[in-house]
Design a protein that fits this description.
By secondary structure, this protein is α/β, with parallel strands linked by helices. It has 8 helices and 7 strands; from the N terminus they run αβαβαβαββααβαβα. Helix 3 links the parallel strand 2 and strand 3. Helix 1 runs parallel beside helix 4. The longest helix is centred in the N-terminal third of the chain and has 29 residues.
C-alpha cells in the first residue's frame, strides 16, 4: 500500500494548523502596531550580519527586537545582541524551518505594544520555509553575490513566497565576478515586478535606502491598522 495519501494528509493538517497560528499572530502584530519582518535565505548568505546591521541602525530611533531560528546553537542570538536590541533564540532541533507556533511561544514575556519593528530570522534554508506563514507583514529573501546568479531559478518557490529580494555582500561583487544584470533577470523571471535591494552590511552600501523602505512600510501599516479599527 502506498503511503503517499497518508503523508499528504498529515502535511495538509500541519500546514492548516500553522495557518491558524499565523492568522492569530498577524492580528496581534496589527493590533500592536508592530511591523513584523521575516528573513529567509540559504546558509552563508550574510543574513545574520545583515540583520545585526539593520538592528544597530534602527535601534537608536525605534523600538526593535528580533527572534532568530537555528537548529542547535545560540550563536546568532549572541551576535545580534550586540545591537542592544532585545533578542531571543528559537532552537528548532531537527526542524529545518520556523513555524508560527514557535514564534508565538518565543514571544511570551514580550509586550508587542512596546515594539515598532520585529524581525524574525528563519533557519538557513531555501526550501522548507516557503510553505510556512509566520504572520509576518513582509518576507525578505536574501541572495548573496557569492551564491551565483541562478539561485532564483533553482528555488522559485521561496522567491514567489517572498515580498522583497535582497542581494547581500555587494562589496564582494567584483571579486566574485557577480553578474548583477543576470541575477536581476532571473529574479524578475520568477517574480515579475519584485522589488530588489542590493547592499552590503560590511560597508553600509545600500542600507539607507533599505531602512527608508522599512520606515515607509511601517507608516503605511500603522495607517491601515488605524483605518480598520
Amino acid at each position: 500500500m502506498s503511503m503517499e495519501p497518508r503523508l499528504v494528509e498529515v502535511r495538509n493538517n500541519v500546514l492548516k494548523q500553522n495557518d491558524i497560528f499565523a492568522r492569530a499572530l498577524r492580528e496581534r502584530f496589527r493590533e500592536a502596531g508592530v511591523l513584523a519582518v521575516s528573513l529567509v535565505s540559504s546558509p552563508g548568505s550574510g543574513k545574520t550580519a545583515f540583520l545585526e546591521k539593520t538592528l544597530t541602525l534602527l535601534q537608536p530611533r525605534y523600538r526593535v527586537a528580533a527572534l532568530v531560528g537555528d537548529l542547535a546553537t545560540e550563536n546568532d542570538a549572541a551576535r545580534l545582541a550586540r545591537s542592544k536590541a532585545p533578542v531571543k533564540q528559537i532552537l528548532t532541533g531537527t526542524v529545518c524551518h520556523l513555524e508560527a507556533a514557535m514564534v508565538q511561544s518565543a514571544l511570551g514575556g514580550w509586550d508587542l505594544n512596546r515594539l515598532e519593528f520585529l524581525f524574525i530570522e528563519n533557519v538557513g534554508n531555501l526550501v522548507c520555509p516557503s510553505s510556512y506563514d509566520l504572520g509576518e507583514d513582509l518576507r525578505f529573501v536574501l541572495l548573496s553575490v557569492t551564491e551565483g546568479e541562478d539561485k532564483p531559478l533553482k528555488y522559485p518557490t521561496i522567491f514567489n513566497s517572498a515580498d522583497v529580494a535582497v542581494i547581500t555582500k555587494s562589496d564582494l561583487a567584483t571579486v566574485v565576478e557577480f553578474d548583477e544584470a543576470a541575477a536581476m533577470r532571473n529574479i524578475q523571471a520568477v517574480r515579475p515586478g519584485m522589488q530588489v535591494f542590493k547592499l552590503s552590511a560590511k560597508t553600509g552600501e545600500g542600507m539607507a535606502g533599505f531602512l527608508e523602505f522599512l520606515e515607509r512600510r511601517r507608516k503605511h501599516s500603522r495607517a491601515s491598522a488605524a483605518v480598520s479599527r
